[in-house]
Amino acid sequence: MDRRSETISKISAKLTNSNPILTPLSDIVTFSDLFCGIGGFHYAANQLGLKCVFACDVDQACREQYKHNFGIEPASDIKLVRAEDVPDHDVLFAGFPCQPFSIIGDRKGLNDRRGTLYHEILRIVNVKKPKALVLENVRQFATNSNGRALNAVLVSLCDLGYSCQWKVLNALDFGLPQKRERVIMVGLRRPGVMELFEWPKPLQDYKPLADLLEKNPARKHFASERIQKKRLSRHTPKTSPAIWHENKGGNVSSYPFSCALRANASHNYLLVDGKRRLTPREQLRLQGFPESFEVIGSDSQIRKQVGNAVPIPMIKSVVEGVLSAHSQIKRRNRVTSTLSSRRVHERDSSVHL
After folding, report:
1. How far apart are CA 76 and CA 260, in angstroms?
2. Is the distance from CB of 308 to CB of 159 less than 8 angstroms?
3. pLDDT digits 0-9 by tens, 57-104
């Protein structure tokens, strides 16, 4: 390490130790929550001390759920929202509609009108220019149309002045017993910040499925005897408790974790030990929602809402990386400023001598 680098390191350490106010949250404080659903992004950001200044979702049931739990009434259709009316914010979150790219849907991609809703994100970003973006979509978003959809988003963000990275992350790697692979895109506007951003490292293990399952679920969650017998005739489990999964081809498998919760899957797509459907609370736990989250609406609404939600621990880990990178660049700038001031002082002193 040369003398200049050593000096920077020493000053950086001194600033960090002597100024407890300098935290990863000091540079990024507020966020907007587009396509907010029931608030997965909101919980992740709120747990890190960030404040929501705007939310929107076209689904009325989601808006009611969001307002009930966060006290914020989301706007409705993003296409009707003027970008100028969105409050200034530091981070923009958006889990934009995945149905055009999902294996459950018909995968029309950009040919589906919902597949081009990312243009609404770009419209708001172009006006509000947040410091950071975190976007989410299904794994197939990266391969749809030979990657054309993902590339369109990344090029557009680059044109707006953002350095971008993307990666496929799995909820299983962040402590949740759910195999849920998602494309996460991170865009950072300030020069040099992306060089400091690091993707979160996977955890060694996930929470046991048994810890999330209810002890005495209501009878309404049990599949019919006919369906139970049919599943058992097709599959012999190796472990219990397990989530039995029937794919679109009718093949049945089971694991000590859940396959991805899906909004538009068949009613009996996932069955606990081949016998019953997951309860609303169990579905929320599989996405990392806290026990304090209050459920309103019907079971079918909750199943749809949770199936469209993001895994909170996974998103939180990504946002922590964004905050850390911003904290580091701010600290580096302070170090550079301190060194510049010191040189000016030494030069002035030598002139007087």
Report:
1. 27
2. no
3. 999 999 999 999 999 999 999 999 999 999 999 999 999 885 544 444
Cis omega (within 30 of 0) on the bond before 241? yes
Written as six digits, the tokens of 178 are: 């759910």
Asked whether the beta carbons of 118 and 155 are under 8 A apart, the reply is: no
Output DSSP code: residue 305: H
Q: Kindly report, as residue ranges, where domains of CATH 3.90.120 are found in the chain.
A: 209-307
CATH 3.40.50.150 at 27-206+311-337, yes or no: yes
Share above pLDDT 70 across residues of the chain, in percent, rounded to a whole number:
81
Dihedral sign, Cα of residue 31, residue 168, residue 188, residue 109 = negative
Residue 125 token pair = 């970003």
The tens digit of pLDDT for each residue in 216-262 reads 999 999 999 999 999 999 999 999 999 999 988 889 999 999 999 99
Question: What is the value of pTM for the model shown?
Answer: 0.84
- How many Cβ atoms sit within 10 Å of the Cβ of residue 104? 18
What are residue 218's phi and psi, to 5 degrees?
-65, 150
- Below-50 pLDDT ranges, the chain: 1-25, 100-105, 107-110, 112, 114-115, 337-339, 344-345
The residues near 43 (Cβ < 8 Å, ≥ 6 apart) are: 288, 289, 290, 293, 312, 316
Q: Are strands 270-272 and 181-188 parallel, antiparallel or unpaired?
A: unpaired
Domain 209-307: which CATH number of 3.90.120, 3.40.50, 2.60.40, 1.10.150: 3.90.120
Written as six digits, the tokens of 53 are: 């200044």
Residues of the chain with CATH 3.40.50.150: 27-206+311-337
Kindly list the catalytic residues: 98
Place of tokens 């580096």: 332
